[in-house]
Model the fold of this input.
Amino acid sequence: MDYYIPPVGCLTDRWVGNVICTDGIWESYSPSYCIGEKINNDCKKLKLTFDFWADGGAVAVLELQLGDIDTDTFMGDLTLVKDVTVTSYGADMTFHAGSAGTYNATANELYLDIVFSGYDIGADNYAFTIKQGN
Done:
């Protein structure tokens, strides 16, 4: 493992498999499924696949880079590696590459806050909280 930090271990392992994705703008539109996958066995790269707005025709695949962990707080930054465009309910929308929020390795949560365009959500960023699945 290229990024193993005791007692944290491999960071991305916390969000591999079925995870819980909560829409931070409209919770009732939270994805009906959300799957995390480690990219190339890299403990700092995570792919999240989910149906945006619980729309089976609007599958979003976000590739995230986890930044260095602060060993005092067990937190770090997230980066969206590339733009992701989805079409849902007749609107083309884009999650833009760049700063994408933070993670908390103690709480096992990702706090996504991604620059978003294409539909007026009343904000410039789209928020999601990602937690370990059951």
Remarks:
- The CA atoms of residues 70 and 76 lie 6 Å apart.
- The chain has a mean pLDDT of 93.
